[in-house]
Amino acid sequence: MDRSPNPTQPSPPSPVLHRDDADEEDETVKQLRECSSLYLSLQDCLVNSNRNWKSCQKEVQALKVCNERRKNA
User: Fold this and answer.
1) How confident is the model at residue 3 (pLDDT cuts 50, 70, 90)?
2) Where does the record place the region Disordered (predicted)?
């Protein structure tokens, strides 16, 4: 019996960066619209700093400013 791979079967999709619970599939991120990249930057900072909020204040403040602008627009 021939067990060669089926040439018509598609290969699995390659992984996409930031594809996890806190990304494009997350309703919170979708609602942030133009602030979503700042939110993801904050998430990256928190991961890289072992959830140290003090070391991520630049990202926290940038997200806060963006959200205030959205509310006032």
Assistant:
1) low
2) 1-29
